[in-house]
């Protein structure tokens, strides 16, 4: 399983326990998932607090955790959960305008999540 972890739910979230669904960030994240050729069936989305409270004890050895942004990464680090940090998929994140930057971290993320 591949866990993509956000920080706090947006007011646009359809379900506050499922990160991103219903937001513009969700559309960007789905685009990234598609570009990395990952199966949506192998992916779960969580906000950091819900992940730490409800899921962290269910992580298996082959599972991978990806923090979306600095705050999600800090929350995972605080709980000693190994993960890869990539930028948050917010449309306000200007670094995402740099195609080379996006291509680089998506390549790194794909390599990370597919390692077993």
Give short descriptive properties of this protein.
116 residues, 4-stranded parallel beta sheet, 4 helices, 4 strands
In a few lines, what is going on in this structure?
This protein has 4 helices and 4 strands, in the order E-H-E-H-E-H-E-H.
Write the layout of secondary structure elements.
Elements: E1 2-6, H1 24-35, E2 43-47, H2 48-55, E3 64-68, H3 70-78, E4 84-86, H4 99-114
Parallel strand pairs: 1-2, 1-3, 3-4
Shape: globular
Q: How many angstroms separate the termini?
A: 11 Å
Low-confidence stretches: none
Count of DSSP strands: 4
What is the topology, as strand order, of the major beta sheet?
Answer: 2-1-3-4
Number of alpha- plus pi-helical segments: 4
Mean pLDDT: 90
Helix-and-strand structural type: alpha/beta
Rounded Rg = 13 Å
Largest sheet: 4 strands, parallel
N-to-C SSE string, H for helix and E for strand: EHEHEHEH
What percent strand? 15-25%
Overview of the molecule:
By secondary structure, this protein is α/β, with parallel strands linked by helices. It is built from four helices and four strands. It has helices at about 25-35, 50-55, 70-80, 100-115; strands at about 1-5, 45, 65-70, 85. A four-stranded parallel sheet has the order 2-1-3-4. Strand 1 (about 1-5), helix 1 and strand 2 form a beta-alpha-beta unit. The protein is globular. The model has no long low-confidence stretch (mean pLDDT about 90).
